[in-house]
Amino acid sequence: MQRRVVYSSRLLPLLFVAPQVAICLIFFYWPAGQAVQQSLFLEDPFGGFSEFVGLENFTQLFGQKEYVESFVRSMIYGTLVSVISLSVALLLAVATMRVARTSGRFYQTLILWPYAVAPAIAGVMWMYVFHPTIGVLGKEMVLAGWGWNYILKGDQAFGLVVFAAAWKQISYNFIFFLAGLQAIPKSLIEAAAIDGAGPFKRFRDIVFPLLSPTGFFLLVVNIVYAFFETFGVIHAVTRGGPAKSTEILVYKVYHDGVVGLDIGGSAAQSVVLMVLVIGLTVVQFKYVERKVHY
């Protein structure tokens, strides 16, 4: 029998939710509203004048070849970061579940450590590892004749920031995948094994479907992470270069707004980025969630 909680005052429930509502209003809705407002104006960066131009900032935006290339690059970047981090995290979680309990705790601790590293620090760390002149691995790759130089070669720089961003997110995904695997009843796995199902068939037909709610949640989180939270990695490693080969949408917003002082254009870019991420999230909930087994 469920009991319904009855508060003595109608204001008490409002007080409980007030901190969360205040945080959303101050740190999300108010900045989002400011971005939408600024995207409709042509503004002097020093506050001298402000002229209403309507959707002109948006029309100019999609007329720029650089922005379209950044848009496509962001889609590829987000897909690669999400797929790599989710796949590796799931593989590590499954491998950790197979080892002994004492060894498993040791491996869990090692895998969880990168979660405490800030994105900018992760970028700096991998930059010094793969730097072509002072990097531990980078200079060895140069001496081996591999032609490694991410400072000058855009494809190598793009691969490095994808690797660094995915590495940073693996620990987060690992936590949830491990918790999801531990929540699956062992009796189901043992029954399938008795029926003659091999390890791969047990994982495909039992473990993966039961793990789909966790995977769906992480898919949404990783898409948001790739589009918004990897700014620090890119800024620390490549600063959008070389030749803007690693300039994704979130970094272009910073570069055009802070460096280029194009307030209206960067605001329009931030609105497009926000709509894009919201749209991707809606698509995931509408189509991907249908295949989730709760």
From TrEMBL:
Q: Does the keyword Cell inner membrane apply?
A: yes
Show where the ABC transmembrane type-1 domain sits. 71-284
Q: Which residues form the signal peptide?
A: none
Q: How does it sit in the membrane?
A: Multi-pass membrane protein
Instruction: List the InterPro entries.
Output: MetI-like (IPR000515), MetI-like_sf (IPR035906), UgpAE/MalFG_permease (IPR050809)
Ranges that cross the membrane: 12-32, 75-100, 112-137, 157-179, 206-228, 267-288
SUPFAM superfamilies recorded:
MetI-like (SSF161098)
**Location(s) in or outside the cell:** Cell inner membrane; Cell membrane
Give the source's domain of life in one word: Bacteria
Described by its record, this protein's role is as follows: Part of the ABC transporter complex UgpBAEC involved in sn-glycerol-3-phosphate (G3P) import. Probably responsible for the translocation of the substrate across the membrane.
The record's similarity note reads: Belongs to the binding-protein-dependent transport system permease family.
Q: How does it assemble?
A: The complex is composed of two ATP-binding proteins (UgpC), two transmembrane proteins (UgpA and UgpE) and a solute-binding protein (UgpB).
PANTHER family with a match to the protein in the record: BLL4140 PROTEIN, SN-GLYCEROL-3-PHOSPHATE TRANSPORT SYSTEM PERMEASE PROTEIN UGPA
Q: What is this protein called?
A: sn-glycerol-3-phosphate transport system permease protein UgpA
State the species of origin: Lacibacterium aquatile
